[in-house]
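new request in #modeling-help
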Amino acid sequence: MANELIDFTLVSIALLGIGIYGLAVKRNFIRMLFAIEIIINAANLNLVAFGRFLPHSGGQTLALFSIAIAAAEVAVGLSLIIVAYRMYQNIDIEDFRSLKG
Amino acid sequence: MADIAFLALSVITIGSAIAALEMRSLIYGSIALMGSLGGIAGFFLLLDAPFVALFQLAVYVGSIAVLILFTVMLVKRELIFKKIEDQRRKYAGIGLMLVLMVSLGAIFIDSGIKTITTDEPPVDFRDIGIDFVTYYWPALILMGLILAGTVTGALVLARRVDVEVGQRTD
């Protein structure tokens, strides 16, 4: 195999950094969901890469679990976006401060 | 050393991840996110995990990205194209990203991870199936229940209670 483990890990770190940047900077609810997706994918990439190089089937199994749970998380997140948009007519999270309590 | 396919995939994945967050229109952003998720599927193929790659394509590119596109379409037109952020926070975010990348990258490059290489054959996808039905079977059932619960919860959350059948005007 030409590619080494460190290459995949570095790509995963770059994706994690981009995701953290998106979470810290963006105030658009949908963009924050994009950032969360990117972070989850970085984690999945790491799982599969380490599973390949050990080698062990657990990495791929856990990645499949993670993908399925991420799908559920996106469904709930999008429905929350729709509810909040219906209440506030906006997707700026600064407007959602009164959601507490 | 990395080969050409790896380099191309990293450029596609990281470039579309940045584009997904920075593009002005949310619709183009979600299409760029699709590209990034597809790039991750390509990485899975490079890692000899075709089953996970196809699962990623089916679940992420096929369903999640389309779900996001439909949600974007439900939002008002001017909100799709409006960028909501302030400049100072943006520079702080870029600084945070660079610090995180450099420090984590330095830690990983300095660790013993560089010496890990393998000549062993890749994991057979039959092993994953055996894993699912033997060691991980309680987790599999729990995952199915969680998926059913969250999707039902999402449906209940997004339901409109103020509109009854026959009253819909818009």
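bot summary: Chain B has two domains: 1-90, 123-160.
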